[in-house]
Amino acid sequence: MKINQTVLEEFILVGFSVYPHAQTFLFVVFFCLYLPTITGNLAIMGLTWVDRRLHTPMYLFLSALSFSETCYTLTIIPKMLADLLVKYRSISVIGCGLQMSSFLGLGGTNCFILTLMGYDRFLAICNPLRYPLLMTNMACGKLVVSAWVAGFFISVTETGMIFRGSFCHPNLVKHFFCHMRAVVRLSCLDSKFTEFIVTAISVSGLIGTFLLIILTYVFILSTVLRIPSAEGKQKAFSTCASHLTVVIIHFGFASIVYLKPEASGGDDTLIAIPYTVITPFLSPLIFTLRNKDMKNAFRKVLGKTNSLNK
Q1: Max CA distance (Å), the chain
Q2: Helices 230-258, 191-224: crossing angle, 10 deg rounding
Q3: Type and span of the H or E element at 217
Q4: CB 92 within 8 A of CB 163
């Protein structure tokens, strides 16, 4: 039976305060990772916008993912960096709800967009003749909007369940942001049941989208293996390599958090770093460094800039 059911106006984010001597070092590390994350995603969106050769569904999906990941990091990392420089790390209850809703919604949107990118590659490789008819830029835009709607529908549902009641003291969130598991445990209601439901929803979404991506790659692999020339096989695989790498990293790190048994222990704050900081950092690097069209577009922009300077 929980006590101290007074109305809370704010939460205290415990976060990295348990590592007082490492906070300056952590600030430098996270800041150095965050800058190239933002720069890389903005570069992808900018190159897709200015280079008409990149106005194709594959790169429109990539640009949509970059925008979603930029918003995703903005909900967490700036607040985390600021908290590393101060002693009193508070967030209002309303602000906590907004942060949680945004984080869950954008995380879900990322999963759905990665699934759509897999579907796009499936159509391009397995149905090349019908691909231009099925995957138009208009259809691509509608699918991206659907991904945002689905992501935030799930997010609002989960956040509403967590914030439907009051919270009990102590108001200490044992995390560096308003993670749903850390916040729901402060609820004065039956937090175990609510935690089970919201976790089940998140895990279902995570596993469901991952299985859909795996299914598309099963069909892609079976099609590619039937291509007679080695050059054709390599070309087909090269269009999927970056996406598949990001999928493995994204779902791999997320599964560590959501599929980790509660009894296994471990610091949730440290466990969350890979999917809140490292995954967004690696994603634009992989998509740009392994993509010939992106590198050519970047050289083209640099060439125009140099010619204007002269």
Answers
A1: 74
A2: 170
A3: helix 191-224
A4: no
